[in-house]
Design goal:
14 helices; two-stranded parallel ribbon; TIM Barrel; alpha/beta; 8-stranded parallel β-barrel; binds 6-O-phosphono-beta-D-glucopyranose; 12 strands
C-alpha cells in the first residue's frame, strides 16, 4: 500500500512513572521508579546509570534519602493533577491514540494486597474517560517498570513464581474495569530489556541471587507465563481486547561482511530480541534458546502447564520501541548481549543513541516477515536539550528532521507490505527520562518548564515540532 492506511493511529506514548508524579497520593504504594535517583554528575554519553542493576545495600541507601528532588519520577510533570489540560493539548495536536501505563502500585500498593485500591482505579477511570472523551484510542501498558517495591523486597521480584498470580490478578482487575473502553493492551513494556536491566524490568536485587543471569531468565519465564495467563483472562472477559507483546528494538548490524561477524550478530539479535517475540508470538521456546541455556548451564524451571499456556495464548499484535540501531563485531564484542560497538557511519544524539531511520524500515520488514501479525511502533523519538527562548519559543528543527526521516521510513515500510496500524512518538509532552532520570532529555511536541532539580514554572509551551506533527496527522502522512 502506498501511503498510510485510512484509520492509521497517529499517537504519542508516555508512562505513568515518568509523568504522573503524586508518588504518595491516592493510596499508591512505593514502586521501583520512585527510587530512580538522578545523578547530577551524569555522564550522558557514558554507560547506563549505576542503578540499573541494584543491590540491597544501595537500595537501603536510597531509602534513606528524603529529598524528593533527587528522584525526579516522584513528581514527574504532575500529570496526575494536570492530565485534563495536558490531554487537551494532545487533542489539539490531533492524536488519534494515546499510550500510557497504569501504575501497578496505584492499584495494588503492595502487590500482594487482597483487594485493589479503589482510589487508584478511580484515577484511571477519569484518565481513560478523558482520553476517550477527546476521541483518542487509549493504548494501555500494564507494566512499565511500575512494580510495587514490596514485591522486590518481600518476594525477590519476578524470579519468584508467586508474582505470576499477583500480576494476573492485577491485570484481571484492569480488564474487567476497562474492557469496554480499552481495546489495545501492552502487557509488559520492552520485555526484552533484561540484559541491561534486572531491577526496573524484573525487580531483582543482584546480591540476593546466586547467578544473576540465570535468575533473569527464570524471571522472564515467569513473565511469559503471566502474559499468557493474563491473555487467557482477557479473552474470557471480552474477546475484543487485543494483547500485544512489546520489545525494545536495537537491531544489530554486523561490522563487516565477514561470515563470523554476520553469524554472531544474528545470534546476538536472536537472544536479545527475537527470543521474546518468538515465545510470545509463535508460542514456544526456540531451539537456540534451549541451547543458550544448556551451554550456560542454566536450569530454568518450567512446567508442562506453563508451556501449554504459552502455546495457547499468544500475542495478537507486536509492538516495539525504536530509537537506534547497534553494531557488532565477532572479535571486539564477545562479552555478552549488551557488548556492542559504536557505528562510525551514523550520527548520534548526545546520549550516544545513533540516528538511523533506515534501521526502522529494516526492523519493520524483519519482524513482519517473521510473524505476519499487525504491528505498532510503541515509541520513537529524539531526546534533546531544548532551549526555551526569552519569548517562550522552542525551535526544535532537529526533532522535526529526526521524526520526518523516521516517518518517511515507516511510509516506505508500509509500501513494502508491513501491516502497521499505529505510530506513537515517545513523550509527546516532555516527561522525565527513563534511563537517566533527568528532565533535560526532552522528546515532546510540548515543552514543560521543569528543570532537573524540580524547579520551574511547570507551564506548557508548544514547540515548533507541534505544528509539524499536527500537519502530518491532519494530512494522514501526505505532508511530511
Ligand atoms: C524506552 C522506555 O526504553 O525508552 C521509556 O520504554 C523511555 O520509558 C524511552 O523513556 C526513552 O528513554 P529515555 O531514557 O531517553 O527516557
Amino acid at each position: 500500500m502506498k501511503g498510510f492506511p485510512k484509520k492509521f493511529l497517529w499517537g504519542g506514548a508516555v508512562a505513568a512513572n515518568q509523568c504522573e508524579g503524586a508518588w504518595k497520593e491516592g493510596g499508591k504504594g512505593l514502586s521501583v521508579p520512585d527510587l530512580d535517583w538522578h545523578n547530577p554528575n551524569l555522564n550522558r554519553a557514558g554507560k547506563r546509570d549505576e542503578d540499573s542493576e541494584m543491590t540491597s545495600s544501595r537500595l537501603e541507601e536510597l531509602m534513606k534519602i528524603h529529598d524528593d528532588s533527587q528522584f525526579p519520577k516522584r513528581n514527574g510533570i504532575d500529570f496526575y493533577h494536570t492530565y485534563k489540560e495536558d490531554l487537551r493539548l494532545m487533542h489539539e495536536l490531533g492524536l488519534k491514540c494515546f499510550r500510557t501505563s497504569i501504575n501497578w502500585a496505584r492499584i495494588f500498593p503492595n502487590g500482594d494486597d487482597e483487594k485493589p485500591n479503589e482510589e487508584g482505579l478511580k484515577f484511571y477511570d477519569d484518565l481513560i474517560d478523558t482520553i476517550v472523551g477527546y476521541g483518542m484510542e487509549p493504548i494501555i501498558t500494564l507494566f512499565h517498570y511500575e512494580i510495587p517495591l514490596n514485591i522486590v523486597t518481600k518476594y525477590g521480584g519476578w524470579k519468584n513464581r508467586e508474582v505470576i498470580d499477583m500480576f494476573v490478578k492485577y491485570c484481571k482487575v484492569c480488564f474487567e474495569r476497562y474492557h469496554s473502553k480499552v481495546k489495545y493492551w501492552i502487557l509488559i513494556n520492552q520485555i526484552n530489556l533484561i540484559y541491561v536491566e534486572s531491577f526496573n524490568s524484573l525487580g531483582i536485587l543482584c546480591d540476593r541471587v546466586e547467578n544473576l543471569e540465570e535468575a533473569k531468565y527464570q524471571a522472564i519465564h515467569h513473565q511469559f507465563v503471566a502474559c499468557s495467563l493474563a491473555q487467557k483472562a482477557a479473552k474470557e472477559i471480552d474477546e475484543n481486547m487485543k494483547m500485544g507483546v512489546m520489545i525494545s528494538d536495537h537491531n544489530c548490524y554486523a561490522e563487516t561482511a565477514k561470515p563470523e561477524d554476520v553469524f554472531y550478530t544474528y545470534q546476538k539479535n536472536q537472544m536479545s530480541q527475537m527470543f521474546y517475540t518468538d515465545v510470545r508470538i509463535r508460542g514456544s521456546y526456540p531451539g537456540y534458546a534451549y541451547r543458550f541455556f544448556e551451554e550456560k548451564n542454566f536450569n530454568i524451571e518450567m512446567t508442562e502447564e506453563d508451556l501449554a499456556v504459552i502455546k495457547e495464548y499468544t500475542a495478537d499484535f507486536m509492538a516495539f520501541s525504536y530509537y537506534y540501531s547497534r553494531m557488532n563485531s565477532y572479535e571486539k564484542n564477545n562479552k555478552g548481549l549488551n557488548d556492542i560497538s559504536k557505528n562510525p557511519l551514523l550520527k548520534a544524539s548526545i546520549w550516544g543513541w545513533s540516528i538511523d531511520p533506515l534501521g526502522l524500515r529494516n526492523s519493520l520488514n524483519l519482524y513482519y516477515d517473521r510473524y505476519c501479525i499487525p504491528m505498532m511502533i510503541a515509541e520513537n523519538g529524539l531526546g534533546a536539550l531544548d532551549e526555551l527562548t526569552e519569548d517562550y519559543q522552542i525551535h526544535d528543527g532537529y526533532r522535526i528532521d529526526y521524526l520526518r526521516e523516521h516517518v518517511l521510513a515507516i511510509k516506505e515500510a508500509i509500501y513494502d507490505g508491513v501491516d502497521l496500524f499505529a505510530y506513537c512518538p515517545w513523550g509527546p509532552i516532555d516527561i522525565v527520562s527513563c534511563t537517566t532520570n533527568e528532565m533535560s532529555k526532552r522528546y515532546g511536541f510540548v515543552y514543560v518548564d521543569i528543570n532537573d532539580d524540580g524547579t520551574g514554572s511547570r507551564k506548557r509551551y508548544k514547540k515548533d515540532s507541534f505544528a509539524w506533527y499536527q500537519n502530518v496527522i491532519r494530512s494522514n502522512g501526505e505532508e511530511i
